[in-house]
Here is the input.
Amino acid sequence: MGMIKQISTGLLAGAAFLLPTLEERASARSVSAITAVGFTWHPIEDDCGHYDYDTGVLSTTCPMNVIVPLTTDHSGTKTLQFTARALWPTLGDAGPMCRAVATDRFGSAFSASNYIEFPTGTGTFTSSTTDSVVVPSKGVFLADCLTNETTELNEFDYAP
Here is the structure.
C-alpha cells in the first residue's frame, strides 16, 4: 500500500510540472475554412459554397452565412484572426465580413465582436483580427462570416 501511495504521489507531482508546459504548447490554432457550415440566404441557392480540399479554401457564389466552430481549451477572453479575400463587393451591399461569437452551451450568455469587413478587389488574401469576446466555462466559440458572390475564406487563427 505504501509503494502505491508513493507512485501515485510521484505521478501527481510529475503531472503538476507538465501542466504549464502543455498550456504553453496550446498557444495558437489554425482551422481551415473547409470545416465551415454554410447557410444560404435563399433556399434556391443551396449549392453556392464550394470547398477546395487541396487549398482549404471555401469559395462562395452567392450570399451565405458561414459558421466555423472553434475548439477551446479554456474559458476567457478570445480574439479571432481570419484570412479571406473577395474579388468585388456586391453592388449596393457591404463587402464580406466576419466576427467572433461566444456563448454558453444554453445560448443565454451571448458575446459577439463587431463584424470586420475585409478588403475587396485586391485579389490577395488578407488577415484581419476581431475584437475580443468572452467564452464562458463550458462555452462555445465560433467564427461567423457573411459572404457575397466572390468571397473566399481560407483560415481562422486563434488562441485556444
